[in-house]
Amino acid sequence: MSDLLNPPDLERSDALVLFGISGDLAKKMLLPALYRLTESGRLTVPVIGVAATDWDDDTLRGHAREAVVAAGMDIDDAVFGRFAAGLSIVTGDFTDDATFARLRDAVAGFAFVTHYLAIPPSLFTRVAASLAEAGLNRDARLVVEKPFGHDLDSARKLQDELSTHFDDDHLLRVDHFLGNRAVESLMVSRFANTLLAPIWHRSYVDNVQITLAEDFDVADRGSFYDAVGCLRDVVQNHMLQVLAFLAMEPPSATNARAQGLEKWRVLHATRTMDPADTVRGQYDGYRDVEGVEADSTTETYFATRMFVDNWRWAGVPFHLRSGKALAVSATEVVVELRKPPLELFGGEDTRTPPNLIRFRVDGDTGIRADLMLSKPERNTGPMTVPIGVDFAQVLGRQELPYENILHGAVEGDPECFAFFPAVLECWRIVGPVLDPAEPPLAYAPGTWGPEAAEELPGPRGWHELGRRLFDDQGGSRRAAPTS
Predict the structure, then answer these.
(1) Residue 321 lies in a domain
(2) Do 263 and 390 fall within a single domain?
(3) Where is this region: Disordered (predicted)?
(4) Ranges assigned E (strand) in 6-59
(5) Does residue 378 register a pLDDT over 70?
């Protein structure tokens, strides 16, 4: 094991090999991100695609152009020309040794290569073994997409199998939320601002709500989604990574391994999810989607209450919810601060609402605090006023998460990748609620999920989210009971 406080520098790649370059992930995310990296001057190595298709290099380049246009980007012909010039393809079945022989010829002469597997997880070990058999695991690293396993035991097994061919310094695990600078800003906001750092614990924080909501359904991904579900798709990885950034202690060194150790510590202190504090839902019409089983019990909605049993967070509930076909699309953290000990400013029929700190980490990213100010009229109680920062206005265009993932894969920067001990803790946490016998509760598309989840955070319910961080409704909440 390398020195934990002084990990080795990872090698920079001379070429990126992208398995699954003809697939959906590459079309929607990877190819547009590679174009952006070319535009910014951060992609200077060739990209060699591998796919079971009859494409040639020109076909791949045409497909890449279509993918960039479909992502809503205005193409600069000079930039795309540079990008396309570095694109080539090796075709063949991933189970055929001849495919890897052709790949070996394609990468001959490169000193170090990154192999990126944007393919179904069922093929990870087969491709890794074939790379090793062809000698392509030497002077190379392997990058695998999520999910890393489907439970705790399978994650351990997958690690053991991949480690046979690539040691841990040459194996990176993708969680694209870690490439999202707005997610990273959770840690920066906490530790770089003495305005927030002193209050970030149980003495001042009443509860935390983390929402990853999507207003669209599973569309044409029925077969994939029905085998995975909401919990495995986004909660076990994305949402628990956000929780770790929110709750971790400051790392003792400025490297990815020190940060990973702090994430592991806080996740290790997190209780396993309790079925009694969990609500699963399935939107009406889900079973009619092509590829979905007629009697499917896969959840499209998941909500739970969690606790971190350490000195900083003991007794503070963390509420998580996520789902498809909900009222809005928003990925947002709401930290509710404790109220003052006496009610001095509320009116006869109102109570002073709590201070809220909001982090929008997808879409219109930013930070917002809801503060109380006095209304001009006497005896009317205080009013909520939002203050904050819209990242796009202040910082300009935000990089796509996969820009940072792919750049890190090529450059050998592990910061944007999941730390394996933390991955195991995430699987431990969700273990008791992975495959329950009870069917999910039905909910209507366009709502906030099953009614049973409404009061999971308590009688006042969930904080409402607007379509944008600074929507008027973003600061409101269901009225508190008056009795």
Answers:
(1) yes
(2) yes
(3) 448-483
(4) 15-19, 47-51
(5) no
**Of 174, 194, 228, which residue is a domain's last?**
174
The reply to whether 229 falls in a domain is yes
Predicted local confidence at residue 1, as pLDDT: 42
* Distance (Å, whole) CA 258 – CA 11: 19
CB-neighbour burial class of residue 232 (10 A; exposed 0-12, middle 13-18, buried 19+): buried
Give the mean pLDDT of the chain: 91
Instruction: Return the closest-CA partner of residue 321 out of 227, 440, 408, 448.
Output: 448
Yes or no: say if 179 and 405 are a contact pair by the CB < 8 Å rule: yes
Residues making up the annotated binding site for NADP(+) are 52, 93-94, 146
60: containing domain: 15-174
275 belongs to a structural domain: yes
Same domain, 95 and 233: no
Tokens of residue 10, six digits: 């990872």
Determine which one of 63, 165, 170, 238 is catalytic.
238
| Average of per-residue pLDDT across 184-207 | 92
Q: What is the CATH number of the domain that holds 158?
A: 3.40.50.720
Annotated active-site residue 238? The verdict is yes
